[in-house]
Amino acid sequence: MLSPVLKIILRRLAFGLLTLVVISVLVFAATQALPGDTATAILGKSATPERVKVLEKQLGLDRPLYEQYFSWVAGILRGDFGNSLVGTMLPVTQMIGRRLMNTLALMLIAALIDVPTALVLGSLSGRFRDGLFDGFVSVGSLTFAALPTFVIGIMLILAFATQILQILPAVSRIEPDASVWSQMDLLWLPALTLALASAPFAVRMLRGSMIEVLESDYVQMARLKGTPERLVLQRHALPNAIVPFIQVVALDLAWMIGGVVTVEYLFNFPGIGALLVSAVSDRDVPVIQALVLLIASAYVVFNLVADILTILVTPRLRTGLQ
Amino acid sequence: MSDEHLVPPGARFVGTREVGTAEGFVDTPEHDLGLSSPRGKQRRSEWVQLLLEALHYRVTQVGLAMFLLIVTLVVVGPYVAPHSPFEFVTDPYAKPSAIAWLGGDCLGRDVLSRVLCGGRSVLILSFSATAIGMVLGVSTGLVAGYARTVVSEVIMRGLDVLLAFPQIVFVLLLISVLGPQRWLLVLGVGVTLAPPIGRVVYGTTMNVKEGDFVLAAESLGVSHLEIISSEILPNIVSPLMVEFGLNLTFAIGTIASLSFLGFGMQPPAPDWGLMINENRVGLVIQPYSVLVPTALIAILAIGANLVTDGVAHAMIGLERDTGSA
Amino acid sequence: MSRIILTVRDLEIALDPSGVEVDRDVNLELVEGEVLGLVGETASGKTTAATSLLNFQRRGAKIVGGSIRIDDRDVLALGGSQLRELRGGVISYVPQDPGSALNPALRIGPQLREVLEFHGFGNSEAERRTRIEEMMAEVLLPSTEEFLRRYPHQLSGGQQQRVVLAMAFACRPKIIVLDEPTTGLDVTTQAHVLDTIRDLVTAHRVAAVYVTHDLAVVAELTDRIAVMYAGRLVEIGPAAELFAGASHPYTRRLLQAVPVLTGRRTLEGIPGFAPRPGHRPAGCAFAPRCSYAVAKCSAEMPPEEIVGQMHRVRCWRHKEVETQAPLLAHDDDRPLESCGQEGLITVRVTAWYGSREVLHDIDITLRARECLALVGESGSGKTTLARCIAGLHRFRIEGDIAFQGKGLPRLARDRPRAIRHAIQYVFQNPYSALNPRKTIAQILSQPLRIFFDYTRDQREDRLAEVLDLVSLDDTVLSRYPDQLSGGERQRVAIARALAAEPTVLICDEVTSWLDVSVQASIIQLLVRLQTEIGLCMLFVTHNLALIRSIAYDVAVMSEGRIVEYGPTDDVLADPQVDYTRKLLADTPKIEVAQLKT
Lengths: 322, 325, 597
What we know:
The structure holds three protein chains of three kinds. By secondary structure, chain A is mainly α. Chain A has helices at 4-32, 35-43, 49-59, 65-78, 92-127, 132-146, 149-161, 188-214, 217-224, 229-267, 272-282, 285-313, 315-318. In chain A, helix 5 (92-127) packs antiparallel against helix 10 (229-267). Chain A is flat, with a radius of gyration of 24 Å. Chain B is 65% helix and 0% strand. At the A-B interface, helix 1, helix 2, helix 6, helix 7 and helix 8 of A face helix 6, helix 9 and helix 11 of B.
């Protein structure tokens, strides 16, 4: 039969899939289960009962709900998210496409700053617990963890782009069709903002897991066996600290997805976060649906990957005993 | 604890528990051994005790000072503002002058007056949202943790689904449907705060329920409701206080962010988040109109977080001492 | 004359950073090849003393003075690589909980190999491999590739402990420190592990320090004993001499509190409780509880005096103590008499835990005014059975539990009030049986409120009565559980049960978490209550020796079945079933020491 690991992984996958389905229902219900409102809202001032009816028919809002849902899902699986309701009414996929790449690039840079820094700060403050370094890091984390992301962004702008240091551009003006990579210096501030916003949580969790591992019975036992300190850290502490590390990174990335919204808006960065904000302002339902579904799916996927990696890395779970 | 996510999404980490030794007193700090101020036979209600304990820490003292400073400003502000927040008193983006001590905003209104009147919304909305989140989270967590039946599983899975949305995105979704209304803001943020609280309460309740004293009450035939209120609740007060603090900090951030994005308070209201957005175009010319509300939001949020951290430390000490279930 | 290989002088350990003293003036020595039992109860400081032999303390404590010499090297003066060489190579440590001492992320093969590598043992992989095979054979574990590739969680508790033992003996150290290594293991496994330890020690002439609170184990295993109380070594000497007649009042009282398997003995506890660090008096810490104490004892700490060959004691009045008659193993030869009462509760059930059947065809009867002991290892189903009777079993039960002839609903909640108050339950863990957020008064008032319609005054009177029954002062009423000791908490738990005026009292391992002397007091209390009030009692325990003092009948359980059932004296003297015989054989007996001389 299937190995126990595979069984667990399949179960997680199934649950992930189920979550996605429920989310899709929620998103659909939130945006389209009130047809009158949607059509009326779109037409705004020019909404007359006849016009509303016509628009509803056009959008297929007069069909029974479940039919609408299934055709929507069918479309998604085909890669068709419908068309935007505003402006030039481009296909949603086209609108999202480039922006998605930009956002991913932003997150990647942010993660590259955030994860190693958090790892170093967290591990060191856990290792040298209650020392001066730990104190500084602790206060720093508490401070940054409390700040809303856009506040961090503003502070960075004030610091780097105005009075003090005129180094980096305050507002990203990336050519719509050019790739983000060609204009890297426009990425730094938003990426730094994201990194500073998510790092504190990662630092505290890593510090905590470091302490737990270093004060565990098996590490004490290793020392009592006469193990050289370097090997204690390398052979005994590290393998056990990896698991929380994976979880922290996944949480971090997932968290960043939410932070992306305000950051992109603040820096006028052409990514999906900024698109979501303008879509909400415009009540551009298909775009909103697509983006929310995309974001939620990313969350689910990140967590799934984290769980699976955790299982693979933890011997206790790998051998199927839970 | 739902075993589907090994680390629940949205998990937040407060601190680390000290591990006890075989002899049980090695890791106990001095005052817990009853060596300095004895815990005495008189004990006030737990949350008061927790707060008093927390005040011993520098972190709490500084945080409380910061928090109270802003609250005072918010409460007193409107009464001492030199001008009305809607009045045009000077040129757009004017530099600080005798009329407008902090200069003018994007439309020429007095920045100082707007700042003094602009905190109310943030404070009231965040508190309300946190309260709603706590009520929802605690009730679901308690019931799910106590019942331990199929119902609990369903509830917790439901919470997991909610956790799949970043807070802001969920509220944005609601706003896109119903428009930017204050009650929606509060409700939306409150609902997104509920799942992490629910998880914590669920876990803690299950822990507490393992304690033999709960079984003892059952053997006496005590009703479920009474067990929850008189046996379990008192044992989760401390973690709940910490959760309140953490969530208040989050709520402040989320509500301010939503206003910044334009979905919170609408112009011409003097709201700090809104002000930051309105005035950032002129950031280089007139930084105060952005700097001051930013700083105020920052101080409020940091203060709340520091106090929470102090309470969390106090809680760890308290748990170790009383052997919390 | 064997030589002394370890000498501890004036060892002092304190809490860090507060500086509160934990252990002080500890002097002991270890002879090559002997087993020294380091004995003490809670707050005695024995574990901190033991780990300091490797110059190690957990976070929160620090060694602040004294010297520990192994072959003329002071362990406490060593640091860095010299200390590392010592640990594992010259002196090893076996911890209490093997499960958490083994790294869950590493297979056991590498963990075994490590010890050899670090101490430069063997010049090649092959040599180390051979040594590992030897080691594993010595602890009766396989050394196959498959076994060595296992992770710790894939081994049973007993196997884990044996792996740890193998690691400890791997480099043939001179000294081994064992810290309660058989706690949590069932009796049979414990017997195996003890045999293994004995064999290893004899085979390699290793000296061992065996830290424990279990005097029966000490009797079977050790050559000399060191007794610690409140951070000081109060007596140290040859086991035979101490067991025959100790020189220190505490040692004597401690020995008097240990239950005996082969006969009946009146167990006596020690009034009061041991002081925690920071609350210790200037003079002898035991004085407040000592029947020999005079004014001098509380004022001045007695110095160490020599009373025999390698036998020292710290007591101003040890001469008087020594004149006492030697301690007897049995002092009560009256046969226990059954009151010949009718059955009060009859139980004929099969029970499940989820989908698993955990109790099979149970058939027992509890008689009025008598005590039935329910004995078994963990997992035998004894607690499940007790809970079924009490109405606390949540899963399926088939069959019948009848009280005074009438069938009982499965759950306590569904039972009529009259039944609920008649059957009361006392839990095992006194630290979890009382709500930490309620005062004692609130805890004790709960049953009063539920079952009786007392006025406030009547309630207060009843509370005073109930506290008096359990010998507690009414000052405890305004306190919280964490302000009481383990023994006091258990008394409160019993008081809570008594407050309901029960006919039947179910005691589920109520002394397992308590120190030996405290256990004795609780047993004393329960026996007294049973005779005074005429309670029907079900006494659940895994400690066979304990039941003689309290129960007329015994039911022995194994794997969900009752394998033997009859009068205590008969079953213990002449067991009919193999399981019971094995259980008796594997249980450590303190009487062994008495016979050793």
